[in-house]
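so the lab meeting is tmrw and i was supposed to have these ready like two days ago... anyway. pasting both below. for each one the top line is the aa sequence and the line under it is the C-alpha cells. i havent really looked at them closely yet so no promises
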Amino acid sequence: MTSPLDSSSTTDAVQAALGAEHAAVWCCGLATAFLPAAQAQPLADAALAHRQRRDALVALLEAAGRRPVAAAAAYATPRPVTDAASAAALLVTAEDDVAGAWRAVLERTDDRDLRTTGVTAMVAATTVGRRWRALAGVTPEVPSLPGTSPT
C-alpha cells in the first residue's frame, strides 16, 4: 500500500506544514494576553483548529514511519507584540505562514485526502486571517492569492 508520504518532497512539505501549525498554536497562545475579550472565542477556535491539524499531521507522519518535527519552545516574532494590534499582526503572519505551507503541500501531492486537508487548511487560514487583518488594520483583508507572499 502506498503512503501519501512516499515522496521525500511531499514529506518535507508536510513537515513544513507541521512546523507552521506548531508556530501558529504558539502565536495564538501569545496573542491571548493582548487581544480584547471579544476576540477570545475566535482565537480559541483558531487555536483548536491549528492543534487539530497539527495532531493529524503528527499521526500521518508517524503512520508513515517518519519522525514529526517537534515544536520549538518559543518562536521569534517579526515585531514586538505589545498590544492588540501587534498581536493581531502576529496572527496574520501565522495564518499566512500556514496557508503558504499548505499550498506547498498541495503542490507536492496527488493524494486526495492530503489535498482535501490542504485546501481546507488554506481556506481556514485565509478566513481566520481576514479577522486578524481587520483587527490589525491590514489591507487588503483577504490576500489576492492566499498562500503566496505579497509582492
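ok protien two:
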Amino acid sequence: MSALTWLLVALAGGAGAVARLGAGEWVTRRAPRDFPWGTFAVNQAGACALGALVGAGPSARMAVVAGAGFLGAFTTFSTWMLEADRLDEARRPGAAGAYVVLSVVAGVAAFLIGRAATGGTLF
C-alpha cells in the first residue's frame, strides 16, 4: 500500500472512532439501560454500511479506506464482547447469550441488506 493509502486509512479510522462514540452515546441516551443498545446499533449500522460498500464495488483503495479505516473503527468487536461479559457478570447469562446471538444474526442480515441495496446479490 502507498503512504497516501496508509494516511487515508488513519484519517478515516479517526473519523470512524469519533462517529462511533457519538452514535453509540446518542442511542444509549434514548434506549432502555438494561441492554447495550448503543453498541448493538452501531455494529448493525456498520455491517449494513459495509454490505453497501461491497455491493457498490469500490476501488481497492476505497474498500481499504472506507472498509478497514472508517467502518473498522466505527464498529467494535471488543466492546461487544465486554458488554456480553458484563451482562453475564450481572447474573444475566440469558441476556448475554441473546446479545451475542442477536448481534451475529442481525449483523449478517444487515450486511446482506446493505449489499443488496447497492446492487449486490442478497445471497
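from a quick look at the 2nd one: The radius of gyration is 16 Å. Residues 3-30 form the longest helix (28 residues). will dig more after coffe
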